[in-house]
Amino acid sequence: MSITSNKLSTEQYNKNFQDIHPPFETIDAAKVEANRCLFCYDAPCMKSCPTGIDVPKFIKQITTGNVKGSAHTILSSNIMGAGCSKVCPVEKLCEGACVYNLMEEEAIPIAKLQRYSTEKAMEQQWQLFERKKNTGKKVAIVGAGPAGLSCAHVLSREGIDVTIYEKEKKGGGLMTYGIAAYKVTPSFCEDEVNYILSIGGITIQYEQELGKTIQLEDLRKKYDAVYMAIGVGLARKLAIPGEGLAGVVDAISFIYDIRNNGFNQVPVGDKVAVIGMGMTAIDAATQAKRLGASEVTMLYRRTQDEMPCTEVELNIAKLDGCKVIWLAAPKEVVGVNGKVTGLIAEKMKLGEPDAGGRRSPVPTGETFLLEVDMIIKAAGQTPFQQLIDNNNLENNQGKISSKNAVTNIKGVFAGGDCVNGGKEVVDAVQAGKDGASAIIQFLF
Ligand SMILES: Cc1cc2nc3c(=O)[nH]c(=O)nc-3n(C[C@H](O)[C@H](O)[C@H](O)COP(=O)(O)OP(=O)(O)OC[C@H]3O[C@@H](n4cnc5c(N)ncnc54)[C@H](O)[C@@H]3O)c2cc1C
Question: What is the value of pTM for the model shown?
Answer without folding.
Answer: 0.94
